[in-house]
Specification:
two-stranded antiparallel sheet; 12% strand; globular
Length: 189
């Protein structure tokens, strides 16, 4: 659960508006946030990871300027809009606001490699690393457990050729999601 002080509702709104204003000149966050339905949710473990990525890269200042002191339950579901704003700011913290897409790529790539280095990640990679199709299928299954919106599916074009199809995806595919794929495949060698 996110911890907020009793009189912070209006300051939270102002803080979010300032965060969006910082990255809006460099990405389509305003349009994306308008398109996201209120029912779209994401597990808190993704929100928890954003500040950690900025800290690990020794660049926590920008992220903490907007979101210091937040606490998220890893298993609870939260609005996707909250995650998207924080993802963009984490990306800006890593690479600067003008390179927010490169930063979001790095955030998702880091999340994938961090998971791959965990005990569970190493065990899963031993089972899947020789098969990129199975690794992609595992990523698809993980997405179903952590996001409540949209739909991803795999189209098979051959034994080692697949296509991911995204429906109602609001997170930046070309930067963030691509970074996660890169990180997952890098972890497998």
């Amino acid at each position: 659960m996110m911890m907020v002080s009793p009189n912070s509702a209006s300051s939270d709104s102002t803080r979010l508006e300032r965060a969006v204003a910082l990255v809006a000149p460099y990405c389509d966050i305003v349009e994306r946030l308008q398109a996201v339905p209120p029912s779209a949710r994401v597990r808190g473990l993704y929100l928890k990871s954003l500040g950690d990525v900025a800290k690990s890269a020794d660049r926590p200042d920008l992220y903490e300027r907007f979101f210091a002191g937040e606490s998220w339950s890893a298993v609870r579901m939260y609005p996707l809009r909250d995650y998207m704003v924080r993802l963009a700011i984490a990306g800006a913290a890593l690479q600067g606001p003008e390179n927010v897409h490169r930063g979001m790529h790095d955030v998702w790539r880091t999340n994938a490699t961090t998971f791959a280095s965990s005990l569970l990640g190493r065990a899963m990679l031993r089972l899947l690393s020789n098969d990129p199709v199975r690794l992609t299928e595992q990523g698809l299954a993980a997405r179903r457990q952590t996001y409540q919106y949209g739909h991803w599916s795999i189209v098979r074009h051959g034994p080692r050729a697949i296509e991911m199809v995204y429906r109602e995806e609001y997170i930046w595919i070309e930067s963030a999601i691509a970074g996660g794929a890169v990180g997952a495949f890098e972890a497998c060698g």
